[in-house]
Amino acid sequence: MISSVCAGVLTKQALHVQVRDGAVYEGVFHGAQLDGPLAGFSLKMARLVEGKPADPQPAEPDLPAGWNRTLLLPLADVAQLTASDVRLGAEDLGGLAASDELAGFGTDASISRGRGG
């Protein structure tokens, strides 16, 4: 579903998470536990943007209504993660140096220009 590299790239990115009951949450990706009994995703400054929550979170007195400082979503409940404008260059993914022509993630356009194969 999601690798540790993708989780690293998504950290601090705004995203939407749709859960299996159809509810959609918006928040800042904080981290992921990808295996074990506590597998799931953590969003900071999250709020419900669509649907009704299966398990309503208690209100936090210092936040606007409907906002959660930290929202934990079990992996089994997550249907989809959506993030926009995520950078996938070599400097973002780590590994090979950014100047190396083989480094980074190759898009269809860059591959067709001869960069990736």
Quick overview:
With 117 residues, this protein is mainly beta. The chain is built from three helices and five strands, in the order H-E-E-E-E-E-H-H. It has a single domain, classed as SH3 type barrels, CATH 2.30.30.
Characterization of this structure:
This protein is mainly beta and 117 residues long. The chain has a single domain (4-86), classed as SH3 type barrels (Roll), CATH 2.30.30. The chain has helices at residues 4-10, 90-93, 108-112; strands at 14-19, 24-33, 40-50, 67-74, 78-83. A 5-stranded antiparallel β-sheet has the order 4-3-2-1-5. The radius of gyration is 17 Å and the shape is elongated. 11% of the residues are buried. Residues 96-102 have low confidence and may be disordered.
List the helices and strands and how they pair.
Elements: H1 4-10, E1 14-19, E2 24-33, E3 40-50, E4 67-74, E5 78-83, H2 90-93, H3 108-112
Antiparallel strand pairs: 1-2, 1-5, 2-3, 3-4
Instruction: List the helices and strands in order.
Output: HEEEEEHH
Oligomer, anyone? single chain
Structural class call reads mainly beta
User: What is the helix fraction of residues, given as a range?
Assistant: 10-25%
For the record, give the distance between the C-alpha atoms at the N and C termini, rounded to a whole number: 26 Å
Percent of residues in beta strands: 35-45%
What's the helix count? 3
Average of pLDDT: 78
Low-confidence stretches: 96-102
Q: Give Rg in angstroms.
A: 17 Å
Shape label: elongated
**Largest β-sheet summary:** 5 strands, antiparallel
CATH top level assignment: Mainly Beta
Annotated CATH architecture = Roll
Number of domains: 1
In the CATH hierarchy, the third-tier topology is known as: SH3 type barrels
